[in-house]
Amino acid sequence: MSIKGVPTDAACPLADLIVAGEHTVASRGLARQQVADLTLFAFAAGESVSEERYPADTVYVCLEGTLAVTRGGEQALVPAGNCLRVKEGVGHAVSGVGGSVVKFLQVNA
After folding, report:
1. In terms of DSSP bridges, do strands 66-71 and 74-79 run parallel, antiparallel, or are they unpaired?
2. Which of 30, 47, 26, 48 lies closest to 39, judged by CA?
3. What is the 3-state secondary structure (H, E, C) of the chain?
4. With 90 as the cut, is the pLDDT of residue 5 above it?
């Protein structure tokens, strides 16, 4: 798998690799292969993505702010520095919590 967009000369905060403009959701693919997809997301305050399903397990790693993952009406909060796995085929929606930007890494594998 080839990973792109991540510095090789010096370490940097992963959250610095993506920026959300006002009232936007931004994404940046780091790797897309048959085995796994790695995508950075940045949600402006109040932004969300409606329910989606993936054919593989999904891991959300929150980098900044707090991410809410809603499955079957149940909401799980994922604060910065934490992660949560959603099993393959389970419908779920993601959104930021509070009035600030949320940044996270989504891994589908």
Report:
1. antiparallel
2. 30
3. CCCCCCCCCCCCCHHHHCCCCCCCEEEEEEEECCCCEEEEEEECCCCEEEEECCCCCEEEEEEECEEEEEECCEEEEEECCCEEEECCCCCEEEEECCCCCEEEEEEEC
4. no
Pick 12 or 39 by higher pLDDT: 39
Q: Please count the other Cβ atoms lying within 10 Å of the Cβ belonging to residue 70.
A: 16
Alpha carbon distance 88, 108 (integer Å): 9
105 pLDDT above the threshold of 90: yes
**Cβ atoms of 64 and 15 closer than 8 Å:** yes
The backbone torsions φ and ψ at residue 14, rounded to the nearest 5 degrees and listed phi first, read -55, -35
**What does pTM read for this prediction?**
0.80
